[in-house]
Predict the structure.
Amino acid sequence: MKISARIRRHGDGAPGKVRLYTIWNGMLRRCRAPKCKAYKNYGGRGITVDPCWLDYVAFKAWALNSGYADNLTIDRIDSNGNYEPDNCRWATMLEQRHNRRSTEIAI
């Protein structure tokens, strides 16, 4: 599908110009594009995107119904799990930092 057809389909303007579209596109690239710099930490580890989220319109509907705001980023609750509705939430950057694989909890 040509980019112009995708833009008309979801109505969010040019790719990269709308934040939610950029988040969705980045998620796909991290998991599906071996040439992406971050691929080794996502797709290279077996992290996938739920098939229903391969459609931007479906992802956008989930995002808007799940608390998306411009100051939040998509976060996988289980950092070893996939990008899917039951494992994702919208979180602040501070919440994201506490949910990293490299985060160690001091006791």
Q: What stands out?
A: The chain is about 35% helix and 5% strand. The first helix runs from residue 3 to 10.
